[in-house]
Amino acid sequence: MKLRKWLYGLKQACHERKTQSDRLLRGIGWELSKWEPCVYKRTSGSKFEYLFVYVDDILIVAPTTQRIVAIKDEVTSFLKMTDGGEADGLIGFKMTRDRLSTMI
Asked: pLDDT, tens digit, for every residue of 17-29?
């Protein structure tokens, strides 16, 4: 009950969740975007990985499925998460994926 009130029942709940998530993500090496407050970036070798965090949704973008799974495991170790499967939209935008041409 306390968590539910903290997450949904308070006016400042979004701010509190953002502050906590930000502190935890930065603690494991994610860098907050200078231009967009809901985007985190991290490099893995020469490849980039991104987290798009919107309220209580997280979209993970990484160069391989193995990296996505590793990031999910890492983030799940301190934030309660469920896997919603492959994304088909984000904040009102419909997403389609063309695997042959490697485009989203």
From this structure: 777 788 888 888 8
